[in-house]
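User: Teach me something about this protein's shape.
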Amino acid sequence: MPLDISAALSVARDIREQVFPTSSAFLLAGSVVRGESTSSSDLDLVVIFESVKNARRQSFTFANWPVEAFIHDAGTLEYFFREVDRPSGVPSLPCMVDEGIEVPKETGHGLLAKTLARNVLEAGPQPWTRQDRDDSRYVISDLIEDIRAPRNSHELLPTLASLYTAIANHYCRSQNQWSATGKSIPRRLMSLDPEFHRRFTETFEAAFTRSDTASVIQLSETVLEPDGGLLFDGYCRDAPVDWRVPGP
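Assistant: First, the predicted structure itself:
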């Protein structure tokens, strides 16, 4: 059962007053705001100051609530939006700011942060290059070979877990769409394509519960097919020329 949003907002107000009283904007975000929280969920906060020496992530417990605070100013927020999240393809911080509820009320700093977040979300992730696509194809192809004839279940499970993330990421990024990680993957796939989400979920449920790897292989082939399919022969990736220790 989702946690009571009014209770979370009340705790957030207390945190702002007692822990971050000089903050310029204070947003409650995460699963509590989306109505997806559970009894073990934490409070995700974005705390914005006029200026900070450096951005930081701070974890603590307040009134028996686990709290994750992401502390920024406008400059560090925009840097993370454009130089961290956009290249990674996973819009963690922009989504938190965009969906966040400002406590105790809207401010100019909060509105500016939301505008920056929405601009980045609308721009989309940094487009994949041909090399990015081939790198992803190669990684997935290599993992597929490991599940064709696994030595034992102890090796199969971590390989399937890696494929779960890799296939979802390729599906999203190859279409120049934002991706996701961990428990956010099903929600992201559902928002992009409910039918693909259904197939993806059923495929991996069968793989994890019954070791049905054939469906995972078929799904991988389908996802990679627009970019050329599975890749081994001919794959090449050059290391940077300066990756060496200077000789004597």
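Now, about its shape. The chain has a mean pLDDT of 94. Residues 153-173 form the longest helix (21 residues). If you'd like, I can walk through any region in more detail.
User: That's plenty for now, thanks!
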